[in-house]
Amino acid sequence: MSEPLDALERRIAELRAEVRRAVKARDTSLARLLRADLRRAERAWDEAVVTEESAESGESGGRGRAEGPGSAEGPEGAGPLPREAGAALMPIREQVHQALLLLGVPTAAKLVVAVNEAFFAGGLRSPQLSSLRRDEERSFRSDPYARPYYLCAALTDRLSPARGLLAASTWPLEARVVGPLSPRVDFLTAATRIAEHLARLAEPPPGAVRLLSRMAQNIPGAVEGGFGPVDPATVVGAARAELEVHLPADTAQRAEVAARAGDQLTDVERLFGAAALSTLRGAC
Amino acid sequence: MSALTALARLRAMREGTAQRITTVRHCHVSDRPMVFVPVKMAGEAAAPLGAMVGTDPDHPRLLVVPQPRNRDLRFAFAAELAEVLLPYVEGFQKATETVERKGGEPYERCLEAPQLLVPNRPAAEFTGLLGRSTRFRRADGPYPVHPSVPLLGRWLTYFADRSRQPGSSLLLAATEALGAHWATGQSALEDANLAALLGWIDPPAGTTGQRAAEEAEDPLLWPPAGPATDPGFDNEVLAPAVQAYEEAPTDRAVARVAEALRTQLEPTWRLMWRSVELLRALPEGSRVAGRWEADRGSFTRFVERIAEGGPPQARRDGAVGAAARLAGLERARASYDVQRAYDDPLVMAEYRLTGEAFAGVVTAVEPEHFEGEGRSRKLRPLVTVRTDDPVRLAPGAAVGSPERRGHGAEVVEVVEVAGTGADGVSGAGAGGAGGGPVEVVLKVTKGMGRGKTPAPGAVPEPGERVCYTSLTDDFQTSAALPDPEETPWTHGGPPEEYVPGDDDAQEEWE
Amino acid sequence: MSRLDDLRGPVPARAHDARAIAALAANPGCARRSLLDAAGVDKDAAARHVGFPAPFGQSQFAITRGNVFESLVKENGCAELLRLLRELMGLPIEQVGYRDVESVGSHLRASHTRALIDRAARESEDSAVFYDHPLLSLRIAGHTSYLEPDVVAFRLGGRFHIVEIKSFSVIDGQAEPEKVAAAARQAAVYVLALRALLEELGHDPELVSHDVVLVCPENFANRPVASLVDVRRQLAVLRRQLARMTRVDRLLEGLPEGLTFSLEPDADGVPTRSAGELAEALRRVPARYAPDCLAACDLCMFCRDEARGCGSTDLLGRQVRDQLGGVSGMDEALGLAEGVREPGEGQEEISRLLRLADRLHRECVA
Predict the structure, then answer these.
(1) B107 by DSSP, 3-state: which?
(2) Could you tell me how far CA B384 lies from the centroid of its own chain?
(3) What are the phi and psi torsion angles at B20 (to 5°)?
(4) Higher pLDDT, A88 or B265
(5) Which of B14, B235, B435 sits opposite C60 (nearest CB)?
(6) Distances from the Cα of A20 to the Cα of A34, A225, B231, angstroms
């Protein structure tokens, strides 16, 4: 290996040690500076090693196959890289909307991502969804009802936005508010919708079957023993049976909250929720 | 922990260097051991990050999992480990000897057996978990793995199980092996750090053991010996490297993770071989070979079990199996303790301290002493031993002696020596109940031959230094346990024979 | 309490989390630690300032794993947890209510938790099963510590249960005993805090079960498994130690006038007092070092160094100390063993044993 690479490696090792010393001493600003130096050194090493490699007629300088199972293909290991190209054709908000329409209930980002992965383009990631609601709210405020739909919040019985749940503005208010029973009702409903959608497909995607199997584990009677794939019809039956127990109470609770929301909230609040102390009211 | 070991630790503290607590080595050290230093991902039960493994100190094999959360990469790691470990283990299976048995068929036993060396107890446990997570896998079905993976799992499980057996040397944890022979001036908890322990035992020239141990606690200078890694390393070095692999799984990204792990594993790799040298330098105890023979026998039986197509080890023992296993462990523990004492005066000294053994000088012998009349008249030579040790053996107690194999005697009486008091040469701490020296009269019952007079050398001579102890190695063969088929219903009834099913083979390893 | 405030100096008291409170019970005999904790001194910062930073750190891999597992157990309205409780405790099918306390905003969590728990205890008809992200509080030696149990579950046999979600695995029915013990100690703190809350609200504190629900991943997968852990013993230990802390007055009595462990920072955030001064102040309060401290106390490296300085046999661990029959100094013990020191009163027995051990040792290595 050439001189500059050796020197860089020594430098990298030193910097790593210094970074860890700084972190241990809780000196975060120093650690950050050192880390930046480290990144620079690593990048320089990367570049130097490529130059050297091409000089050595493209021999891979690494340790070869034994340590490089770069073929991470497997049942779970489908890399995100090829997918992203296809996903980019459709804006994130539309992909989320697509998943929400399938599910029909206020849903956490994680399940939205799972449904997108199972049935649609895939390639959505939870962090991409975290700012979505805020962006939608900003858009609505600047030009209300300009879009055919908004991705909005679900409202708690205190009329505040429920943490982490996404909903579609086109749904009636009763479907966008949540009471204490609603998380369970919505979970069972989501499972039903996924099962029904699966049953309609000639070739159910394996990812979707896995998603439904996982959900079915948590629904009494939805899994008929053993391994094997779940039967969508069984899942629908089991979920409906439990739903019957909760629906009357949940519907009543939701109607009550929805009525209050309709009476008390402004348009924006009805979609994006009232701040806990109603500070928003003055703001708009 | 005996007062002797406590004292050795105090001395280590004062001298700044570790003290020997044995005069000989009590474990087998193979001519060609395989050192295995695994590291795992923090927060996961059995997610390997990588390992350094091999039989040649100068050429370790570095195995790396560039993304430890990826199950396929984990199984690729297991397959690679199998590539190293299985040929090593199989290398010992060919050469066998025929062992004759009293009242039984002769059987074959491998002439040599493999020996796996890991840094510490958690590494031995991790070896077991790796075995547990791979031995039920299958080469076909929904989550196929390389055919070597389940076999590897069975061997790793075997080694880890065996390492819980006192006296077995098939898998040794370096900190335990070293700690059984040296006392340091720090606590047992701190001894679990291999670099610190070796710092005490073998400090670099010009520094004390305590200084060396202190330095060894800095993870930047001496990375932990695994399987847990240093959190600082995880956060600052490994995580960015794994992230880079995640973003672009290129050879270079793999090399980066590999280099990161190499910095953590290489120091321990060297310490492991240093440990081997240190242990080899100790003279081997005379009963070590016998225990290694038992290890070879166990190894041979496991080889046969695999060759016969037996199922992998069950997830859990049945009630009878568990009881038998516990009884077996207890017997092995007791037997190992006794054997060590017989092999090693420093270990025997612990029993002299508690009065279960004594050493002294023979003051009188009556070699042709007989007991009984007529046909039942028996040769029972009498031996009187004077000792300063606090003897706590009652008349009638059966005793043996490390100096003479097969020799047995019985305590006749213990007499205080008149005229000497606590102001004797040996001062405080000497003597029997009264604190002074005592004379123990023994009659020899075993090992003096069949003649009218004792075989030459079978009875100690006056003036000879001897040691006697009530410890014996002939334990009850086994507690009376029913056969597994007769397990009472209170203990779950007869266990179903363990047949690993699809559940086992398809168990997730996320 | 003003004396304690003096000890801490003009900096905010360090709040204890459940882990720290559980650790209080680890070495109750240590006056240094009791005092620093009672005064709310930041022991970690103090240790760093005197040049003996604690050797603790957490890997981001472990943190991530913990977070991922917790969110898995809680997602979809605690669907996994619901299954586990239905299996484990026969929770009836209609009991599925879920309330996220955090939805009110973090500044109102404590009062919202209080209101919800009060309502649940009062009219159990309308109560939910799961209270997610609750915030409890516990008064410790005059300071309020805020505690965040993973989930509080209600209506399991009509009682509240603390649910503790941990990401260490249960493999073939076995988990690492130390980890289970640590989880139990931590959960006991939550039980205590929730009982205190119920009592304050005028309800029966026994409405909180002493069985906590421990949820862990099973084998090598992420699938959770639940078990009940009885924490009565941990509760008793904890109560005892907390009571001791409120009797901290006795420790205060003997302290020198003007003693302080203040870490008051200057404009750059560096403590104004020198490291030497702080170390001196710490040494004025006796510690009881034991090797176990290395796993539990931020000050451990400082105290170990101090124990080394005076040749204390504490360094070698309890097993050695037990053998030495309470002889606490290395020189003293070796002096007795080697016969260069006369046994003091009550030391005759241990002295005889040590001398015998020393004789046997010399005999064997000669």
Answers:
(1) strand
(2) 37
(3) -70, 140
(4) B265
(5) B235
(6) 9, 51, 10
Q: Which of A177-186, B115-124, B321-330, B380-389 has the lowest mean pLDDT?
A: B321-330
Q: Averaged over C81-103, what is the pLDDT?
A: 89
Q: What is the 3-state secondary structure (H, E, C) of B447-462?
A: CCCCCCCCCCCCCCCC
Going by C-alpha positions, the residue among B296, B277, B49, B327 that lies closest to residue B177 is B277
Q: How far is CA C233 from CA B334, C180, C239, in A?
A: 34, 14, 10
b vs e for C325-337, b when ≥16 Cβ sit within 10 Å of the residue's Cβ?
bebeebbbbbbbb
Indicate yes or no: CB of B251 within 8 angstroms of CB of A60.
Answer: yes
Residue with the two structure tokens 């060590």: B340
pLDDT at A191: 95
Instruction: Residue C302: name the closest of C292, C289, C313, C285 by CA.
Output: C289
Average pLDDT over residues B450-470: 88
Cα separation, C285 vs C292, whole angstroms:
19
| pLDDT recorded at residue B435 | 66
Give the DSSP per-residue string, C314-364: GGG-HHHHHHTTT--BHHHHHHHHTTSS---TT-HHHHHHHHHHHHHHHHH
Least Cα separation, residue B93 to chain C (angstroms): 31
DSSP-derived letter for residue B91 is T
Kindly list the distances between the CA atom of residue C219 and the CA atoms of B504, C229, C241, in Å, as whole numbers in the listed order: 11, 19, 36
Nearest CA in chain B to A226: B503
Whether ipTM tops 0.85, in short, is yes
In the sheet that holds B116-118, the strands lie side by side as: B61-64, B48-54, B34-40, B116-118, B171-173
Distance of alpha carbon A17 from alpha carbon A11, whole angstroms: 10
The residues pairing with B50 across neighbouring beta strands, listed in sequence order, are: B39, B64
At A226, the pLDDT band (50, 70, 90 cuts) reads: low
B426 pLDDT tier (thresholds 50, 70, 90): very low
The tens digit of pLDDT for each residue in B142-165 reads: 778 888 999 999 999 999 999 999
Q: What is the pLDDT of residue B37?
A: 98
Give contacts of A21 with chain C, Cβ < 8 Å: none
Q: Are A218 and C132 in contact (CB under 8 A)?
A: no
Interface of B with C in 324-353 (CB under 8 A): 345-346, 349, 352-353
| Chain A neighbours, 3+ Cβ pairs < 8 A | B, C
pLDDT of residue A56: 55
- Which token pair is B311? 């199922």
Q: Of B26 and C110, which is predicted with more confidence? A: B26
Question: A127-167: per-residue pLDDT in tens?
Answer: 778 788 888 888 888 888 888 889 998 998 888 888 889 99
**Cβ-proximal residues to A6 (8 Å cutoff; 6+ apart), any chain:** none
CA atoms of C254 and A103, how far apart (whole Å):
68
Residues in chain C closer than 8 A to A25 (CB atoms): 48, 53
B chain contacts of residue A217, beta-carbon cutoff 8 Å:
none
Instruction: Kindly state the average pLDDT of the residues B28-55.
Output: 95
Note whether B506 contacts A227, CB cutoff 8 Å: yes
Distance from CA of A102 to the nearest CA of B (A): 29
Which residue matches tokens 């793999």? Answer: B254
Pairing of strands B465-469, B357-366: antiparallel
B42 in contact with chain C, both atoms CB, cutoff 8 A: yes
Instruction: Assess whether pLDDT exceeds 60 at residue A205.
Output: yes
Look at residue A270 in the predicted model and tell me its pLDDT. 86
The Cα–Cα gap between A138 and A132 comes to 10
Give the list of residues 6+ apart from residue C87 with CB closer than 8 angstroms, or none: C226
Identify all chain A residues contacting C263, using CB atoms and an 8 Å cutoff. none
Averaged pLDDT of chain C: 87
DSSP, residue by residue, C39-58: TT--HHHHHHHTT-------
Tokens read off for C137: 């509080």
